[in-house]
Amino acid sequence: MSQKKPVRVAVTGAAGQIGYSLLFRIASGAMLGPDQPVILQLLDITPSLPALNGVVMELDDCAFPLLQGIVQSDDPEVAFKDADIALLVGARPRGPGMERKDLLEANGAIFTTQGKALNKVASRDVKVLVVGNPANTNAYIAMKNAPDLNPANFTAMMRLDHNRALTQIAQKTGSAVTDVTKMIIWGNHSATQYPDLFHAEVKGANAATLINDQKWLETEFIPTVQQRGAAIIKARGLSSAASAANAAIDHIRNWVLGTPEGDWVTMGVPANGEYGYEDLIYGYPVTCKDGKYTIIQGLEISEFSRARMDATAKELSEERDAVKHLIA
Ligand SMILES: NC(=O)c1ccc[n+]([C@@H]2O[C@H](COP(=O)([O-])OP(=O)(O)OC[C@H]3O[C@@H](n4cnc5c(N)ncnc54)[C@H](O)[C@@H]3O)[C@@H](O)[C@H]2O)c1
Predict the structure, then answer these.
(1) Where is the Lactate/malate dehydrogenase C-terminal domain (predicted)?
(2) CATH architecture type of domain 158-323
């Protein structure tokens, strides 16, 4: 039995689809390691509490050795109390006839409340990952509503896009996914994201040079990664959930336990002028060590890449400007 102090992991939207894949893997040790006990602090809205209780019954029935406690609540100040990690998954889905700005508004209200609650009760070092869409802007709103916490601790999930791109390159080049390194998804977790092949490597060789097919890059690779979420909804009738949960596990595991030597990952993190962007939560390549991430700086950016990086930054600025009134 591990002697380590349990880590408090808050998960919102815990009764939802992603929650159903995510919670069991956190409790099994997939996220923080096989010797790290956890306490799950689960938040959902009042009407979803009966369903949440069913999920908790199943967690109990797994008898996970690392799971040292479960809290269930519809109150963010209960769920976020002393949280070391907060996975903000719950969000308002886009309903029929809802415009993008209505979605921003509905989620803005949720992430304002949750940012304030984190500010009030979470651990001062809480690591926040926003999964609920629009993830980058929701993370921005939560960060701005938590003035006592370090802004660097607010991140948005770009890892699903990153992992999707890794597999596209592995399949294209007939290599193992572990042979593909240094992928980057710049910008927003949306259809404007820019999956950048020009710094990626396959067994240490530059991926763009190796593939040497600009038409494929522009007409297949980039759109496939950008549109993957929609393709999954079309095929499955439901949005990606297990792969999203897996990406959340990867994001936190690397942030807490580090990235492998010679590789980096993509995280949506506060932009403070890197590559010319600021006051956004923007997808950047980062390495992680000792629980901290560092943005990879100084990569050479071609005109082709710059146009796409700017386009996704423009969309993020527009989203930010649309929610300005929600920020204190
Ligand atoms: N960043 C990414 O890569 C990525 C990938 C996939 C899905 N997503 C997003 O993740 C979110 C969740 O997806 P899902 O498939 O689990 O959805 P879902 O509808 O199955 O579950 C969402 C859950 O959140 C709960 N919820 C709603 N408002 C809440 C609030 N204010 N506080 C707490 N809980 C609340 C709901 O009751 C529900 O249980 C969606 O916004 C989806 O678009 C993001």
Answers:
(1) 159-325
(2) Alpha-Beta Complex (3.90)
Alpha carbon of 109 to ligand 1 centroid (Å): 14
Q: Answer for the pair 33, 26: CB distance below 8 angstroms, yes or no.
A: no
Residues with CB under 6 A from ligand 1: 12-13, 15-19, 43-45, 48, 89-93, 110, 131-133, 135, 157, 160, 189, 239-241, 244
In which region does residue 178 sit, left (phi positive, over 0), alpha (psi from -120 to 50) or beta (all else)? Answer: alpha
- Please determine, for residue 1, whether its predicted confidence score (pLDDT) is greater than 70: no
Backbone angles phi, psi at 294, to 5 degrees: -130, 130
Model ipTM value: 0.99
Tell me what pLDDT residue 99 has. Answer: 78
CA–CA distances in Å: residue 315 to residues 192, 237, 262, 318: 8, 27, 31, 5
The answer, yes or no, to whether residue 2 has pLDDT greater than 70, is no
CA-CA-CA-CA torsion sign (90, 96, 102, 104)? positive
The Cα–Cα gap between 129 and 251 comes to: 8
Element (H, E) at 156: strand 154-156
SS3 of 280, please? Answer: strand
Nearest CA to ligand 1 atom 29: 90
**Angle at CA 170, nearest 5°, toward 168 and 171?**
65
Q: Tell me whether residue 133 is annotated as binding.
A: yes
For the chain, the residue count is 328
Domain with CATH 3.90.110.10 in the chain: 158-323
pLDDT at 97: 77
Q: Which residue's structure tokens are 């240094």?
A: 182
Question: What is the 3 state secondary structure string of 85-135?
Answer: EEEECCCCCCCCCCCHHHHHHHHHHHHHHHHHHHHHHCCCCCEEEECCCCH
Strands 265-272 and 292-295: unpaired
Domain(s) of CATH 3.40.50.720: residues in the chain: 7-156
